[in-house]
Amino acid sequence: MTVTVRETVRETVTETDPRDAERLMDLASTEVATIDELAACVERLHEVQRAKVALSRLDPEALRQALDARRRASDAGPS
Prior knowledge:
Layout: E1 2-6, E2 11-15, H1 18-28, H2 31-56, H3 60-76
Antiparallel strand pairs: 1-2
């Protein structure tokens, strides 16, 4: 049996035995979880973008205070 796996950049053709088929089924069974992880990453990216917009709207004094507080917390190290 020949299985062709196509990827964006390369194509791999391999002769499969039952262990290969099991591995492929294991990988295929992760589709839903992988999509969920991707959706969570995309949501996190949207949160990061919203945070950047909010930071860009801070007045200079508020931004300076936030940076100073962050620097102090960083200098203090983990508790």
